[in-house]
Design brief:
With 64 residues, the protein is mostly helical. The protein has three helices and no strands.
Length: 64
């Protein structure tokens, strides 16, 4: 495995932080996926945050 730059490490840390927050949000909705599924889904959403933001931006005008 090659060396990872500080910038890359920081970016990955931000993904993991976002994934943890997403997991908390999902759990607060009383959705109970298996732990592994929750981790994979949360990381997927965090890694694709730009796409998710663009999708959710459309809801801003719909919901209060």
């Amino acid at each position: 495995m090659g060396a990872v730059s500080k910038k890359e490490a920081d970016a990955y840390d931000r993904i993991l932080d976002a994934a943890a927050e997403l997991a908390e949000l999902i759990e607060s909705a009383e959705i109970r996926p298996e732990i592994r599924q929750l981790e994979e889904l949360s990381i997927f959403l965090a890694k694709n945050s730009v796409i998710v933001k663009n999708i959710l931006r459309k809801c801003k005008h719909i919901l209060p």
